[in-house]
Amino acid sequence: MKSGMREERVRELSESSYLMLRDSYRMVQELKGMVDRFYGNCLTGKAMDFDTLSAIRLTTDRLYQDMERYLRPECDPDSAHPEAMTEASAEKGSR
Fold it and tell me: How far apart are CA 16 and CA 87, in angstroms?
């Protein structure tokens, strides 16, 4: 891979990592707010709110799926789709 192409790829990966981190932080922030409200309602004896619990579950599922899709090729490269594999994993697998 040429030096210019490698630098471009590193910039793309850096931007992708930053966007994933930012989006994950926002989802965790949203999730924390929902859990805090749910916890507060439980402490005050208010009825359990199934809508809030469902929102917590959906947000947790979305966060997990996004992180798994992003991190799985790095953490478990053998399970990743061939097009999503890193260069090192792809080279290792082709030997």
Answer: 17
